[in-house]
Write a structure and sequence with these properties.
Number of strands: 7
Distance between the termini: 55 Å
Radius of gyration: 20 Å
Order of helices and strands: HHHEEHEHEHEHEHE
CATH class of the largest domain: Alpha Beta
């Protein structure tokens, strides 16, 4: 892409480095910001910098938040005896949008993926085990992707919990094999939460 300005080229490269944004879209974004008033571009720059520098991680569930404990963990109306285990923040948002789950969450921050160098110690599995041990949690919903990596993570967690008196369930397979939660429609995902199935611990 031949551009008349090195500064424009730099802006396009910056936008294009984001996931899902190609060079043409990056160019449109850069030109749009060029036409905007300085106040608008300053607002965007401040929001991004403020988010990056000040975002926190909930000390209980590892969801991102603005303080030590996220709003869901701090909500006294949420059920404390059921935890939904998800891969990342996008899955929390997806499940919350169904309005079918009133428990709490545990965000792993990834799934076991040896090909990418991600092992059990690289994600929040041990903190999950510690959170469950000796607590009032009665059910664990493993709402992980229906992929080889997601199933491997599910199997690993259930093996770690085999001696714990706990109901372990997974989403009903309304979620397609190989599918990601964030792309499932809310009706299907909500039904999968309500019709979750027991997971046989090894």
């Amino acid at each position: 892409m031949n551009l008349p300005s090195k500064l424009l080229e730099e802006a396009v490269e910056a936008f294009a480095s984001l996931p899902g944004i190609g060079k043409k879209t990056a160019l449109r974004l850069a030109l749009h910001l060029h036409k905007e008033k300085q106040q608008a571009t300053d607002f965007i720059a401040h929001a991004i910098t403020n988010f990056k520098n000040n975002i926190s991680q909930c000390k209980e569930c590892h969801n991102i938040c603005d303080s030590e404990v996220c709003d869901i963990c701090a909500n006294p109306l949420r059920e404390t005896d059921i935890i939904c285990v998800v891969e990342d923040l996008r899955d929390v948002i997806a499940v919350e949008n169904t309005a079918q789950f009133r428990g709490k969450y545990h965000v792993l921050g990834g799934v076991i993926n040896p090909m990418e160098g991600v092992g059990p110690d690289d994600i929040q599995i041990e903190s999950l085990i510690a959170r469950i041990t000796g607590s009032e949690v009665k059910e664990l919903i493993l709402a992980l992707p229906s992929t080889m990596e997601g199933d491997t993570t599910t199997f690993y967690i259930t093996k770690k919990l085999k001696d714990v008196d706990l109901k372990v369930s997974t989403l009903a397979r309304g979620i397609p094999i190989g599918g990601e939660l964030e792309y499932a429609d809310e009706v299907t995902l909500g039904r999968s939460i309500l019709e979750r199935v027991n997971y046989q611990k090894g």
